[in-house]
Every structure is written in C-alpha cells, then in structure tokens.
Design goal:
It catalyses: ATP + H2O + phospholipidSide 1 = ADP + phosphate + phospholipidSide 2. The protein is α+β, with helices and mostly antiparallel strands. It has 4 domains: about 15-230, Calcium-transporting ATPase, cytoplasmic transduction domain A (Distorted Sandwich), CATH 2.70.150.10; about 240-315, no CATH class; about 320-355, no CATH class; about 385-640, no CATH class. The protein is elongated, with a radius of gyration of 35 Å.
C-alpha cells in the first residue's frame, strides 16, 4: 500500500500515505503523542507524563499488510494509512474514515464528550459502497484499494471535505490518502468518486457506543488529529496564594537588606571612631588599608555580607515546600471525598492539578455559557394545546404551588396497554389520555409529529433491555418521551426509515429528508412517507421554535397546534407568561416522484460534499389550496423540502 509526503515540519499542501506500510510511513505522526513532558520536576508534570503513557499504551487492533488478520498494537504504533478495528466502548485511536460497521446501513454511534462536552450519542454513517463490499472480512479490508483526497490537517471539528476514489471491482491494490484541496480525476473507468463529509469520519477522542464493531482508515494521527490541533500548550498558572507569598518573600528580603545596611553603617562608624585603635588579627587584614577612613569602609562592606549570611534564615524558603506538600495532601482529600462522589455513574472527584486547590474558596461568581453546563438541565412535558384545546396543569398551580405539592398530586396512569411507558413520567390531566384513547385525530397527529420530527437516537443495547433515548437536547428528549408515554413510541431509526409503534401498531415511515434547526428558518423539518401506503404522498412535518415575546415576562414553555398564528397567540395569551414554541404539523403534498427524484439528484455521489444540498435552509414553502408554492415563486430543485406549513 502506497504513499508519499512532504516533511511534516513544513506546511502541508499535499499528503500521500501508503496504508499498511510502517517503514514508509515512519515519517508521519503516530496515533498518539498527546504531549511531551519537558520535565518531571513536580507532581503535576509526573501526572501528565503518566497520563501520556497511559494513552500511548492503549490497545488497538490493526490490519497489517500480508497477514490479512488483526494484530493488537499500542496506540503509539498505529500509523497513518492503517485499517483499525474498533469495538463497542473503545476510544477512537485517530481521525478515521469509516469503512464498515456492524449496524445496518453502515451506521455507528459515538459519544463526543471529550471533544465538545456533550454526552448524547451522535450518528455517523460510512459510504454504502464500502460497507456493502468490505463488511467484516479482514481479507477484503486488507485488499481495499482507494485514494482519499482531502483537506490538510486543521482544527475545525465540524467540517471535513474529501473524495474517495475507489476501484471497487478490484480486491487488491494500494490504499492512498492524499491531503489537498483539489479533487483529482481518475484515468480508470472502473474507479468511482465518492464524496466525503464530516458524517463519514470518526475523530480521535470519540467513544464508540451501541455498535458492536467498526472499521476505519487512519487519515490523520498524532499531532495532526483535530483533537490535538485544538489543544494548546499547558500554561503554568499561579494562584492568589502564590502571588501573595511572592510579595511577602520580597518584603522579607528587603527587610533583611535593610538590617544588613543598618549593621554596615553602624560598623563603619564604629571602625572610624574607635575600631582603628584596636589591634585585630583577621584573615583579611592584608586587604584593609592603613588609612582609618578607607579601612572602615572596607570593613563595613565585609560586615554587610557577614550579616547577610548570618541573618538569611529570616527568609522562609521552606514555606514553598510546606505549601506544596499541603496542596498535595488536599488533592488526595478531594479524590477521597465521599460527598463529591457521583454514585449513578461511579465517578469520584478528581483533582487534575495540585496548584489550584485554594482557588476554589475564592470563587464568588460563576459565569456559564448556557443552561446545563454547570446546572442540571431538566425538561418535562407539562402542558400543550392541540386544535385550540388546552391540556395539562393550569399555570396557576405551577406559579403558586411548591414543588413538593406538585409531586404529591395524583398523576394519570399511562401503563395500560403501553409496555413502553416510563414510571418517572408524570402528567396530571386525564382529558388528554381520554382523547388519545378515543381516537381524536388531531391529538393522534400531534403525538405522531412528536414521534417523527426529531434527531433522537434509541439505545437498544442496555443490559436491562429498556428502550432509552439519546438526544442532542433535553427538550427534544422530553417531547419524544411524552409521545412514547401516550402510546406513540419512537422505536428505531435508520438513515432511510423511522419505525414507530402507534397505539400498539408498528408502522414504518420512509425518511426522505431532514432539515436541521437553524436560526434562519427557526424550525426543524422532516419529509416522510408511510411505507407501503401506495399513495406516493409525503407528509411534511415541522417543529418551529419561535421567540416571540407575548408578554413582559417569560417563564413557561408550551407546545401549541392551531391553524393560524393568531389562534396560537390567542391560546397562549390565556396563560400568564409564556415563550412560544409552535408546533405546526401534518400537510400532504402529491409530489412523491418529484421529491424522490430531487433527493436522488442532490445526493449524486459525483458531487463534492461542499456542493451538496446548498441553499436548502434558506427556502420556505406554503400551502395554497393544497398546492406547494415557493414563497419567492422561484422553484429550486435543492430547496423543495424546506416546508413551512402555515
């Protein structure tokens, strides 16, 4: 497997890597080298050195050339161009191009807490071509021939652009990874050009979750990984105690110098007036001039250094050592503190540095960038309005009652005919449950929207067998959980389908398009089609988040379903203080073939990833007599899915 490269010491404009060729690729960064400890002079440096060694000695399974089998290697021995096998709960060794996984359609799930602090699962998907052909066969993976042309190493965690050129009809050859910004055309008719983006890449620092195995090709390793390029040099931090000690020591040294000067002046005066009359036998007698004044000056200078040596114990040098020992003991006490132990995740407190302990007691204000960073962000489904009818707790109760009083209220029983109900879910209005059971169409459509329009991931691999949702935001999880407890269970997701259980009946929807929430559209949308319905019609579902201020104060959050904005505002106006979170659901459009064709066109694999689905977030459509009409009257093929149903 082939590769060539410029020296890593120079700014890279192009890189070629011979996969599975350790000798040739020795010039590149290894998969680790987290940091180089310049010294081990103190406890913190030794701790960093131990952490680096721990990372370097992690194990990874690598396909070696000629063997066709997995070999266990240390992270420090994984090279750029290697094919690596990951198992569930493994840390990602380097920046990898995902080749195949154990999940259907090449999906895998990762946790990115080490990159962005988020503990929710995110989905990544390999190319269908590599997933279908390579699978879990080490022989095919070791014979994988392809060239990846991609961007040079950079620190952008949210973007990756590249192209895979692969002769999928050949089972032998070389894997080449080339790093530049220009796509290359292939001279072979058998070579396919497949666009790569950030969803095809696993970054170092992620953890593989809920996926039995996954194979990846190392693109960047060591200091070239995005994680390492985002980590700066370790800065030495001084605490307020350190700064105070420095000032005190400086003052004590000045006091010592003043005492020595006073003794020097006194000795000079005494030598001038009286001392020259005495005969003394000193080692420096030969240095003292015969003249009384000159002799007194020389003796005074010598006396200064004598007193400086005699009185140097005034300076408390041992204070620094004592403070360091105290800090070390405090760090151990922090690690052993049972009150800071998080039993749910078996996580104790950990003092990562011994130099900042006393700073904890100096904190007066804590500034957080968002809710949930330093606080527990809990979202619960308490009330909603569907078709002009309001359900849930009256806002007066929420406004005046204590939390304990609300907890003591009798919640409705949601366990009947619903094996997926959650005992911890509480809802206090039985009217909504009655309307669900009676088959109210508006209520059913409302909860169907909540079960379909989201990016939540189900976790089926728990030991207790329970269905648990992993969401990117707590409000999304709360909405899907509410639908689940009222009988509309989100069960499974693939790249092309969403499976739900609606009042005990399993249904599968074809997922045609997802438009993520953004600040321009202020809503998230999906286009789905019920499987095997034969109608060819799509349901456009939107969840919009509007920040319209309806009153002077805001503290409550609602979901509202109405036919117009005025109806929504009228309903919300009945509550004391609200933030509007509008949910517009369910519209039909007879454009099945058109939607399908446009999706296929926009997912053309020969297009670069930077050119796919551009402009889709800046378009909006309305319904005019059941006809889909763009607001700007300019139909665009890449925008036919951003639907706003008014």
């Amino acid at each position: 497997m082939f590769s060539c490269c410029k020296s890593s010491k120079e700014p890279e404009t192009e890189r070629k890597i011979r996969a599975n060729d350790p000798e040739y690729n020795a010039q590149f960064q290894y998969a680790t080298r987290a940091s180089r400890a310049e010294t081990e002079a103190n406890v913190d440096d030794k701790q960093r050195h131990r952490n680096d060694s721990k990372v370097n000695n992690r194990k990874a399974f690598v396909l070696r050339p000629g063997k066709g089998q997995l070999v266990e290697e240390k992270w420090s021995q994984v090279l750029v161009g290697d094919v690596v096998r990951l198992s569930s709960d493994d840390f990602v060794t380097a920046d990898l191009l995902l080749l195949s996984t154990s999940e259907p359609n090449g999906l895998c799930y990762i946790e990115t807490a080490e990159l962005d602090g988020e503990t929710n699962l995110k989905a990544r998907q390999c190319l269908p071509e590599t997933h279908d052909v390579l699978g879990n066969d080490p022989q095919l993976l070791s014979a994988f021939n392809g060239a990846v042309w991609c961007e040079p190493p950079n620190n952008n965690l949210s973007r990756f652009e590249g192209t895979l050129e692969w002769d999928h009809q050949s089972n032998s050859g070389d894997v080449e990874v080339t790093s530049n910004n220009i796509s290359r055309a292939s001279s072979s008719n058998n070579i396919s050009r497949l666009a790569l983006d950030n969803d095809k890449v696993l970054l170092r620092g992620c953890v593989l979750r809920n996926t039995q195995w996954a194979y990846g090709l190392v693109l960047f390793a060591g200091q070239d990984t995005k994680l390492m390029m985002n980590s700066g040099k370790t800065k030495f931090k001084r605490t307020s105690i350190d700064r105070l000690m420095n000032v005190l020591i400086l003052g004590i040294v000045l006091f010592l110098v003043l005492m020595c000067l006073w003794c020097t002046i006194a000795a000079g005066i005494w030598e001038t007036v009286t001392g020259h009359k005495f005969q003394s036998f000193m080692p420096w007698d030969s240095l003292i001039p015969e003249d009384a004044t000159s002799g007194a000056t020389v003796i005074a200078i010598l006396i200064f250094f004598s007193y400086l040596i005699a009185l140097n114990t005034v300076v408390p040098i041992s204070l620094y050592v004592s403070v360091e020992i105290i800090r070390l003991l405090q760090s151990l006490l922090i690690n052993w503190d049972e009150k800071m132990y998080y039993e749910e995740k078996d996580t104790p407190a950990k003092a990562r540095t011994t130099t900042l302990n006393e700073e904890l007691g100096q904190i007066e204000y804590i500034f957080s960038d968002k809710t949930g960073t330093l606080t527990q962000n809990i979202m619960t489904f308490n009330k909603c309005s569907i078709g002009g009818k309001m359900y849930g707790d009256p806002p007066v109760v929420i406004k005046t009652a204590a939390t304990s009083d609300i907890d003591d209220m009798q919640s409705i029983d949601l366990s009947e005919d619903n094996p997926f109900f959650e005992p911890e879910f509480k809802f206090y209005d039985p009217v909504l449950l009655m309307d669900v059971k009676s088959g109210n169409q508006a209520v059913h459509e409302f909860f169907r929207v909540l079960a379909l329009c989201h990016t939540v991931m189900p976790d089926h691999n728990r030991q207790d067998g329970k269905l648990v949702y992993q969401a990117q935001s707590p409000d999304e999880e709360a909405l899907v959980s509410a639908a689940r407890n009222f009988g509309f269970v989100f069960k499974e997701r693939t790249p092309n389908t969403i499976t739900t259980i609606e009042m005990g009946v399993e249904k599968k929807y074809e997922l045609l398009c997802i438009l993520d929430f953004n600040n321009v559209r202020k809503r998230m949308s999906v286009v789905v089609r019920e499987d095997n319905n034969g109608s060819g019609s799509e349901t456009a579902i939107n969840i919009g988040y509007s920040c319209e201020l309806l009153t002077d104060e805001m503290h409550d959050e609602f979901i509202v379903d109405a036919s117009s904005y005025k109806d929504v505002e009228a309903q919300l106006g009945k509550y004391i203080e609200v933030i509007m979170q509008s949910q517009n659901g369910g519209g039909k459009m007879g454009a099945g073939k058109q939607v399908k064709g446009l999706l296929n066109k926009n997912n053309d694999k020969n297009l670069g990833s930077r050119n796919q689905l551009q402009g889709i977030r800046n378009k909006s459509f309305t319904f005019d007599d059941d006809i889909l009409v763009p607001e700007d009257n300019e139909p665009g093929p890449s925008s036919a899915f951003a639907l706003i149903i008014n």
